[in-house]
Inverse folding.
């Protein structure tokens, strides 16, 4: 079953703009991760934030986590055309599983 | 970084035939691998958790006799779609964790696009 819901489902922006994607989940978690998927390919891990963390940065990525609201956001700053992809949040609710959200399809126009 | 090799990348088969998909961890050991199914423009749906040396754990609604999983070594898991039908056409992706790493992140294969005619 799906754990996370993401919004927006699709996002189209100009190169250089920031892109923000949100993820909500239902159960308590140990950590939350964000992955990227280029069309027809496997997923690539971007960043992991633990349940006791509130914010994390990695290059142009900034992730926040609000466990009281069961939500997370992924911000990509100064977007590039190469950032065009689908982005998924994934949660570890325990039991060694990783459950993926519905995903946001990001299109960055050059 | 850790590499997971999945093949074939795509396969076209006739209805009623069986298709085997392999997932290998190339430079790390994985006691557990995961098999996902993805429909176009949708998310990944966990099908089963493959455990080395024991039976796979299937998610609710996934037919274990339809999707046979074998995890005979620490670096190889296979998914066999038996008696495939057009409704089995989908993108199948495997993933694995490094048992020697404390990092919980998953490493993914590049996926297999299955088309059943």
């Amino acid at each position: 079953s799906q754990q996370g819901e993401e919004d927006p489902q699709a996002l189209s922006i100009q190169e250089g703009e920031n892109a923000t994607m949100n993820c909500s989940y239902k159960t308590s978690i140990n950590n939350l991760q964000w992955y990227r998927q280029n069309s027809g390919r496997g997923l690539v891990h971007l960043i992991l934030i633990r349940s006791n963390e509130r914010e994390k940065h990695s290059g142009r990525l900034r992730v926040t986590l609000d466990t009281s609201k069961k939500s997370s956001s992924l911000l990509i700053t100064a977007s590039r055309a190469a950032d065009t992809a689908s982005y998924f949040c994934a949660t570890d609710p325990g039991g060694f599983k990783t459950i993926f959200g519905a995903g946001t399809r990001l299109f960055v126009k050059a | 970084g850790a590499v997971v090799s999945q093949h074939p990348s795509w396969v076209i088969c006739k209805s009623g035939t069986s298709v085997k998909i392999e997932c290998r961890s190339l430079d790390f050991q994985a006691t557990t691998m995961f098999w996902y199914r993805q429909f176009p423009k949708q998310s990944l749906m966990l099908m089963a958790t493959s455990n080395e040396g024991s039976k796979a754990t299937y998610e609710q609604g996934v037919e274990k006799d339809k999707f046979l999983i074998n995890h005979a070594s620490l670096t190889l898991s296979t998914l066999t779609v038996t008696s495939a039908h057009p409704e089995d056409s989908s993108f199948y992706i495997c993933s694995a964790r490094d048992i020697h790493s404390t990092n919980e992140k998953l490493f993914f294969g590049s996926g297999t696009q299955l088309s059943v005619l």
Observations:
- Chain B touches chain A at residues 4, 6, 32, 34, 36, 41-46, 49, 59-60, 91, 93, 95, 103-111, 113 (CB under 8 Å).
- Chain B has a mean pLDDT of 91.
- The CA atoms of residues 6 and 23 of chain B lie 4 Å apart.
